[in-house]
Amino acid sequence: MARLADSHVTASDGRMRMSEGTGGTGADIGLLAARERVRYMLTAIFGMVEVDHDGDFTFPYDSERVFVSVRPFGADEHVVDITSWTNWSVPASPELFELVASRGDDFAFAHLSCRRRPAGTEDDDPDADEGEEAVVSVSHRLHARHLDPEVFEAALASVATAAGEIAEEVASAFGGERCQD
Length: 181
Fold this sequence. Notes:
alpha+beta
């Protein structure tokens, strides 16, 4: 049984339990415990992970970059988001959205999606060029409370593998930039 000192939570057999008298809210402590458990699992798999400016864990997996975040879900639950951004600055078109809709669930433990943004922006730039671009990603979500190491590792592999396949397909068919180029 390992004691997670920073979050005052004990992790045992994949289950998290709050200790008595921890201070702070249970939701805050639960989020810290879930993040620590995810960090521990990621470092056990990859040896080392980075933390980006948003606080997400990130690491290379084959030729792709994967991001893992833990966020609140409901009053006192948490979800683990696994995402790999595949393509930026893809010209938005009905054909692109049709590809995403038709291939969206083709992968085990991975879901394809895209979102529109004004052309020439990284986020919400008021001086953006006219037109729209799309950003394509592959993602999967897992419930943090029942996070199984083998299922987590399979989901990480599936997201990265799907991202590599889709990134090449989107770049070849629609242009834009591969996120890992």
